[in-house]
Amino acid sequence: MFLACSGCGPPSPEKREQPGEGPVAVRVVRVVDGDTVVVAMPGGAEERLRLIGVDTPEISEPPEPFGLEAAAYSAERLEGRVVFLETDVAPRDRYGRLLGYLWLESPSGHLGEAQLRRNLFNAHLLLDGYAQLMTVPPNVKYADYFREFQREARENGRGLWGAAVDEEDFYVGNSGTRRFHRPDCPSAGQIAPQNRTRFETRTDAFELGYEPCRTCKP
Ligand SMILES: [Zn+2]
């Protein structure tokens, strides 16, 4: 839930962060849930920050499977720690939250797969199976790596990928959005015929790079 309060709204355009600046050191004040934290910026102001590219299960009552585990995972690794915040094309979402990548050590040199695996917390959530991939353009700087990290976690049954799921008889994919749905999801009924595709299993959808709908959570 987003609570409106004075001073917490989206910043005016001239105050927006300039994308493309190097990572800045921030301190993680607290972890809200697996993919959302409160950080203290260099000037001391506290900001709510949503991690880019990942989605952890909800912790609101009743918590989704692995929601509490994901929150504990992030708290253990981030709370109280100084990390390095990197932004992407869009620095904030529509709720005014910062959107970012959190590096555990200041990144340097080539930011390729090895450094992402070792040092990027967003990647760790995927690799250890505490988050699912959630690609939201235009913030796709590391999306290709993230897709492979999720594949690795899924194929090895790590974290939430090891949990049993009640399979639907089939799933409905939208080749335009690359999302897939349960057959009774309202969004599934609105897919244009030429974009509509059918999967017999969740695995088939993930294999083709589709991401689960955030409403019906297939
Ligand atoms: Zn859906």
TrEMBL record:
<keyword id="KW-0255">Endonuclease</keyword>
<dbReference type="GO" id="GO:0016787">
    <property type="term" value="F:hydrolase activity"/>
</dbReference>
<dbReference type="Pfam" id="PF00565">
    <property type="entry name" value="SNase"/>
</dbReference>
<dbReference type="InterPro" id="IPR002071">
    <property type="entry name" value="Thermonucl_AS"/>
</dbReference>
<dbReference type="GO" id="GO:0006355">
    <property type="term" value="P:regulation of DNA-templated transcription"/>
</dbReference>
<dbReference type="GO" id="GO:0004519">
    <property type="term" value="F:endonuclease activity"/>
</dbReference>
<dbReference type="GO" id="GO:0003677">
    <property type="term" value="F:DNA binding"/>
</dbReference>
<dbReference type="GO" id="GO:0006281">
    <property type="term" value="P:DNA repair"/>
</dbReference>
<protein>
    <submittedName>
        <fullName>Nuclease (SNase domain protein)</fullName>
    </submittedName>
</protein>
<feature type="region of interest" description="Disordered">
    <location>
        <begin position="1"/>
        <end position="22"/>
    </location>
</feature>
<keyword id="KW-0378">Hydrolase</keyword>
<dbReference type="GO" id="GO:0008168">
    <property type="term" value="F:methyltransferase activity"/>
</dbReference>
<keyword id="KW-0540">Nuclease</keyword>
<dbReference type="InterPro" id="IPR035451">
    <property type="entry name" value="Ada-like_dom_sf"/>
</dbReference>
<dbReference type="InterPro" id="IPR016071">
    <property type="entry name" value="Staphylococal_nuclease_OB-fold"/>
</dbReference>
<keyword id="KW-0010">Activator</keyword>
<dbReference type="InterPro" id="IPR004026">
    <property type="entry name" value="Ada_DNA_repair_Zn-bd"/>
</dbReference>
<feature type="domain" description="TNase-like">
    <location>
        <begin position="22"/>
        <end position="163"/>
    </location>
</feature>
<dbReference type="Pfam" id="PF02805">
    <property type="entry name" value="Ada_Zn_binding"/>
</dbReference>
<dbReference type="InterPro" id="IPR035437">
    <property type="entry name" value="SNase_OB-fold_sf"/>
</dbReference>
<dbReference type="GO" id="GO:0008270">
    <property type="term" value="F:zinc ion binding"/>
</dbReference>
